[in-house]
Amino acid sequence: MYQYTSFDRQVVHQRAAQFRDQLERNLKGELADDDFRPLRLQNGWYIQRHAPMLRVAVPYGELSSVQLRQLAVIARELDRGFGHFTTRQNLQFNWIPLARSADAMDLLAEADMHGIQTSGNCIRNITSDALAGIAPDEIVDPRPYCEILRQWSTLHPEFAFLPRKFKIAVSGAAEDRAAIAWHDVGLQLLKNDAGEVGFKVYVGGGMGRTPVIGSVINAFVPWQEILVYLEAIVRVYNRFGRRDNLYKARIKILVKAEGQKFFDAVNAEFDKILSQDADGREHIIPVSELERVSRSFVDPAGVRPATNGFDPHRGGQTPPAFLRWLERNVHAHRVPGYRAVTLSLKRAGQAPGDVTAEQMDIAATMADRYSLGELRVTHEQNLLLPWVREADLLAVWHAAREAGFATPNIGLLTDIIACPGGDFCALANARSIPVAADISERFADLDAVYELGPIDLHISGCMNSCGHHHTGHIGVLGVDKDGKEWYQVSVGGSDGSHLSGPAIPGKVIGPAFAAEEVADVVEALIEAYRAHKAPGEHFVDTVRRIGIPPLRAAADAVRHATAQPATAEAETV
């Protein structure tokens, strides 16, 4: 993991002190709410439906046990005893009083953490593959580059007030596990024929009310020049992005409207920075800087490759539940004798991604005992232990079961991605948590879920798409109609992984459904899959082969509250 320098610590502590001053002046009436708003936003503070919400950055998903314990302290002392991990590899607190917000910032700074640029119209948290640095299919470890990007983008004076939020994702593996094509900028690390490292650059991706897949703007940017190229992209966006319309302000709208003209402007700006800007070439990354940062990302002390193969049956009878957990929650590792283990945050009684302070402490203890003090936050709202010895897997399983982390459902139907929705978010049109709970209860039989095979189910409470419903094999979107909660269902989406195929938004299967119908609809889609699937065929492949009509017919057959939807208004919900 990256180790903060004295300069890094100075930055976050000074930022916390600055925020305390801003907060105190706001509470005294000396700093107007409208003036305070952009300041608190760029420190991660929203005003949500019931209380302020703090979003804590977990850069590229790496988290130490010390940091997780500090998050547990904040949950216990300032919040209501829990937090929520998001698809952006962040942690959110939903109940910290604004008057205590500066105390939270100080506690974060003590553990080399912050909420800087987790909200606001700026470059947000840099995300990556949760298996970065340990995946067998990795081409280049993306973490050093992610850290350089984090340092470059943090408090960047030119990009503090962009037309809209801006998100960057980086992948260094053969399989895209970071959904890079769905980001404002997606970066794919690769090597050319000469063995030189560079980036394939995607631009203009995004979800929301207009889902767009990013386009390749440059097939190979040498790694040394990536900051300059990103500077060019964000400059052109900052100059020409819409500021008069919130819904048309994202870079995806500009790229879609301008096409090659946008690409030409970026490449011209890139050349101009290098040839004309004063000190423009200073953003070319020197080898010495990459080497300095990379020293934080060597294998942790104590990693010892093993030569003997792993046999789960060695030593006597193996519990069937352990074998199923090995299949679903344990992942291959590039170091012989090690595995990565997902701690499932998808279990009955808690919303997807939620974790209590006690569970944070337990996960931190598991990381110390079995993963050299390191964890990862996954894109799917789970936690991951990246350095587990194969010899410790049975012990890890027992510890995970005790903590409620061992549900063997990773990649299955009940490994649901869901935003907090209308229960917390002021922007949401509908609730996500009760819908996720209904579906989880409907499919509580793990044997049945296991037999269905991999299915991505994603739920968003509004068009902002924080639950990534567009990428779900089954996507559920909360919409508002006459002040009531309705849910639009789509099928066949992809995040870009090998299982799901190239990134593509799902297709809507018809008019929206009432909340009480959604679990019935999901079950109907599952039954349609069972009826139509070919031998060995996954759900998403069946969906794409048979098309929308039979799926819509199956869903319409279980309507009851919306049994008569055939109005022009209903068709557009």
From TrEMBL:
Organism: Ideonella oryzae
UniProt cross-references to SUPFAM superfamilies, sorted A to Z: Nitrite and sulphite reductase 4Fe-4S domain-like, Nitrite/Sulfite reductase N-terminal domain-like
The keyword Ribonucleoprotein appears for this protein: no
Superkingdom as given in the UniProt entry: Bacteria
Ranges where the Nitrite/sulphite reductase 4Fe-4S domain occurs: 119-271, 416-555
Keyword list, A-Z: 4Fe-4S, Heme, Iron, Iron-sulfur, Metal-binding, Oxidoreductase
Gene3D superfamilies in alphabetical order: 3.90.480.20, Sulfite Reductase Hemoprotein, domain 1
Protein's name according to its UniProt entry: Nitrite/sulfite reductase
Record's keyword annotation contains NAD: no
Domain Nitrite/Sulfite reductase ferredoxin-like as annotated: residue spans: 53-111, 352-402
